[in-house]
Amino acid sequence: MDLASIVGLVGAFGMVIFTAISTAGGMIGLIRLLNLPSFALVILGSYFAVMVANKWSSALGVFGAIKRTFSVPAFNESAIIQKLVAFSEKARREGLLALEDELEDLDDEFMKKGLRLVVDGTDAAIIRDLLELELTQMQARHSILQAMLMTWAGAAPAFGMMGTVVGLVNMLSNLEDKSSIGPNMAMALITTLYGSLIANVTVAPWATKLKGQSTAEASVKEMVIEGVLSIQAGDNTRILAMKLMAYLEPALRKSLESELLKD
User: Fold this and answer.
1) Are residues 7 and 84 in the same domain?
2) pTM confidence score
3) In Å, how far from its chain's centre is CA 165?
4) Can you list the alpha helix ranges (DSSP code H) found in the chain?
5) pLDDT tens figures, 193-239
């Protein structure tokens, strides 16, 4: 569970609620911010705009992407490095063909594909091209989800402004009824608030978090590519370990160095 996502959402909405209660002197301030028509216009209207911009399956898939922003993906970089180092040691002792028996038990499909190509004697340039193509396509799929969320982030304030216009039109068309001025003006302003909240507290930050997760996953796959090609080239295991650990954060790198680079 990603605590930053939860604490951030609770904190942002909590500050709005706190301000509403404080300025109105009680819960009446919060109640005044609750307007179902405004909520429906901004949330549903902006989501339908996302549907217009994307195919049906992609529009529905955005909710799965949102769910991922509340979890911390585990890429197990240390375990991957240790596995690649072990493969390197075995390949240098027994030859590349000795790795074939290890591949069936390998959980990482991306690494398995690369090492399978190595065992089959595929040229290094072709291996790099194939693995980088898969990496590029993964990033393209991720970017579609990120773009959908950014479309939503752009549409939400726009629908907030539409609600403002609707509220003003209703108010100006019925000025003789003074009792309707307050509710219509409230809708005009609240929809703008809803649009801003949806865009800046939820969907745009979600898109940013997904982009960060995608970047981290791409970095791990790039590390695997370098490891696979180093194994094929017969690089010294110590050099391989140093090359792979360059992808790690300093704290994680230091703990792994003591294990892999010991004399």
Assistant:
1) no
2) 0.85
3) 34
4) 3-24, 28-32, 36-53, 56-68, 77-94, 100-103, 109-119, 124-172, 178-197, 204-233, 237-245, 250-260
5) 899 999 999 999 999 999 999 999 999 999 999 999 999 988 888 88
- Around 160, how many Cα atoms within 13 Å sit in the side-chain half-sphere? 18
What gap in Å lies between CA 54 and CA 148, rounded to an integer?
8
Which amino acid appears at position 145 of this protein?
L
Mark residue 177 as left, alpha or beta (left: phi above 0; alpha: psi -120 to 50; beta: remaining).
beta
Residues 96, 1 share a domain: no
Q: Do 180 and 110 reside in the same domain of the chain?
A: yes
Split into its structural domains, the chain has a count of 2
Distance CA 161, CA 93 (A): 69
Q: Which residue range is the domain that position 9 belongs to?
A: 1-34
Q: What is the CA radius of gyration of the chain?
A: 27
Structure tokens at 257: 């160095």
Considering the domain architecture, whether residues 103 and 45 belong to the same structural domain is answered as: yes
